Amino acid sequence: MPKMSLSHFEASILFALFTSIVLGVITKRTDRERVRYAAYCFGYFVFAIFTLSWLMYLGHG
Prior knowledge:
With about 60 residues, the protein is an all-alpha fold. The protein has one domain. About 80% of the residues lie in helices and about 0% in strands. It contains 2 helices and no strands. α1 packs antiparallel against α2. It starts with 7 loop residues before the first helix and ends with a helix.
């Protein structure tokens, strides 16, 4: 089995993707609601990743 080497950013995006899919599947009833909610959650996850990374970058000096 080949080794997978991910950067921190790639791992964060994968976590956001899989978590958004799970949240969409377990919280909504119709497929349309699931897809929309998963996309909504993914967008907010990515926004949080970029916001927190910039705050850490600026706070580190």
